[in-house]
Amino acid sequence: MEITQFTAEARAEFGKGPARRLRAKGVIPGVVYGLGREAVHLAVSVDELAIALRSADSGNVVLDLEVPGMDIDADVAAIVKDLQRDPVTRAFLCVDFQWISLAEKITVDVAVEVIGEAPGVVEDGGVVQVSQYTVPVSCLPMDIPENVLISIDGLAIGEGRYVRDLQVPEGAEIMIDEGEVVLSIAAPIREEDLETRIDEGLLDELVDLEGEEVEEGEEGEEALAEEPDAEVADEESSDEG
Question: Measured between alpha carbons, how far is residue 144 from residues 101, 110, 132, 212 in Å?
Fold first, then answer.
């Protein structure tokens, strides 16, 4: 893995107002912490962050993070620890970075990539059901793999692969039990089974709706019997950033 150059500015203003003003300029609030250092609040360019994240297919990127006015050791880098997005637009809202030592192992989530052809899928119409889309991997920062491979060659319906079957790069270690199921080959759903499931689902929905109507009716009667005598005040949400 290559290290990516990245620059962010330190910031001194906090709260909703400053955060909104930053975002209006294409900048989001951030923070960097770790290695026993004091946390530093940052202003981060949305465009530059997007470019940095695209530089690594795995989603894991090692950053040579520069903050003007800060002294950073040559063997220290940073990773994106947490990235919050708008639930609707998926726009970046704020980001947390973590300082790491290039000489010490870290644990990150790495994507599982399925390779090969399973007879249970090709010949019998089965479906690959993945249980682990990512796995935690411990390794040196510069050895973080883009993905870990797992082959479905030879698998029939009802068979599966486990963590012990993952093709792990040298120097990396999977940090969950080797007996955990990664994927399995499931039998195809027959048309009559699908129709039965749909019918059962509709029946469940009708039962739920009838239950809700009863509850709403009871609540309405109780509301008529009681006179409200207090006002509820809205609480302001906590500051961002």
Answer: 14, 8, 18, 51
Number of H helices, E strands in the chain: 4, 14
Q: Are strands 62-66 and 3-7 parallel, antiparallel or unpaired?
A: parallel
d(CA 186, CA 164): 20
- How far is residue 48's CA from residue 57's CA, in Å, rounded to a whole number? 16
Position 168, amino acid: V
Tell me the per-residue pLDDT of 97-111, one tens digit each, with 9 for 90 and over. Answer: 999 999 999 999 999
Residue ranges of the chain that CATH labels 2.170.120.20: 107-186
pTM above 0.85, yes or no: no
Domain range 3-102, CATH architecture: Beta Barrel (2.40)
What 3-state class would DSSP assign to 113? Answer: strand
How many residues are there in the chain?
241
Q: Sorting pLDDT into bands at 50, 70 and 90, what band is 58?
A: low
- Where are the CATH 2.40.240.10 domain residues in the chain? 3-102
Span 107-186 CATH architecture: Beta Complex (2.170)
Calpha distance 38→176 (Å, rounded): 32
Q: How confident is the model over 1-29, as a mean pLDDT?
A: 90
CA nearest to 191, candidates 125, 118, 122: 125
